[in-house]
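Project channel, design review

CF: Before we commit to the Roseimicrobium gellanilyticum constructs, I'd like one complete example in the thread so the newer folks can see what an input/output pair looks like. Taking Putative enzyme related to lactoylglutathione lyase.
RD: sounds good, go ahead.
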Amino acid sequence: MKFTEIAYSCYAVSDIAKARAFYEGVLGLKVTMESDMGDVDHWVEYDIGSGTLAIGRTAGWKPSADGCSVALEAVDLDETIAELKGANVPFKMEVIETPVCHMAIVLDPDGNPLIIHKRKPGHH
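CF: and here is what came back for Putative enzyme related to lactoylglutathione lyase:
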């Protein structure tokens, strides 16, 4: 078995409008695909670089702070953190430094963790 890439990462959300206000309004992501099947399913995708981050609502799939998390690579970490704090986004973890990066964890409106990340020069 072989795979060529991660097709997408997705967060379950309970309220599409509230989630979109965060992902589009606060984070500034642009919708690249949307499928709205009313009360059944609703799916929104955002292409970021060569990857895709999606949010979705469907029966039996619930948001969880214990699930997978996505790391967004910031162009300017300090500016991004300041903007998130200015928008009163809750932080699960303030900025920390690792040997290869700086990162913080914020929470979307459903409590899903989202890593705000910046690699140090020379790390890919």
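RD: helpful, thanks. DSSP finds two helices and eight strands in the chain.
CF: The chain has a mean pLDDT of 91.
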